[in-house]
Amino acid sequence: MEENAQPVFGIEKLYVKDLSVEVPNAPEIFLEREAPQVEIQLNTTGRGVGEGVFEVLLTVTVTAKLAEKTVFLVEVGQAGIFRIMNVPEEQLEPLIAVACPNILFPYAREAVSDAVTRAGFSPIVLQPVNFESMYMARMQEQAAPAVTETLQ
């Protein structure tokens, strides 16, 4: 890395990599009047696809259930290609794990809401997510086994 090279962080492309909608108990499920229990799962991954180019994928899975019956299942894989260059190595992972998902999240939220509505249900509006705290919790989990190993 050149000493005076300016850091580069740019969005090359944002896109839906995966979109899945399932309503396994239709049409009977539309006759139910109870509000379903909604569970939301988030996952992020990142990988290099070239020199200074990374793909980051934010996967949002929304599952709605009434008792044991699945009302609907929506999974959105919102991805982006990011150009990240001249950034110190220790700052690269936080950019991929925090900054990129923060950019992708509003697009994933819109895709989830749209898919749920198109499936015939009231829209699900995802609440803001603190990707930094998720990243820090993951770092603490990874560090914890190392600490217990050294204590033994």
Key phrases:
alpha+beta; 4-stranded antiparallel beta sheet; 4 strands; 34% helix; elongated
Strand content: 35-45%
> CATH first level: which class?
Alpha Beta
Separation, N- and C-terminal Cα atoms: 40 Å
- Annotation field: number of helices: 2
Q: Mean pLDDT, rounded to whole units?
A: 92
Topology of helices and strands:
Layout: E1 8-22, E2 37-50, E3 53-66, E4 69-85, H1 89-118, H2 131-151
Antiparallel strand pairs: 1-4, 2-3, 3-4
Helix pairs in contact: 1-2
Protein described:
- The chain has 152 residues and is α+β, with helices and mostly antiparallel strands.
- It has helices spanning 89-118, 131-151, and strands spanning 8-22, 37-50, 53-66, 69-85.
- A hairpin with a 2-residue loop joins strand 3 (53-66) and strand 4 (69-85).
- It is elongated, with a radius of gyration of 19 Å.
- It starts with 7 loop residues before the first strand and ends with a helix.
- The mean pLDDT is 92.
In short:
The protein is an alpha+beta fold and 152 residues long. The protein has helices spanning 89-118, 131-151, and strands spanning 8-22, 37-50, 53-66, 69-85.
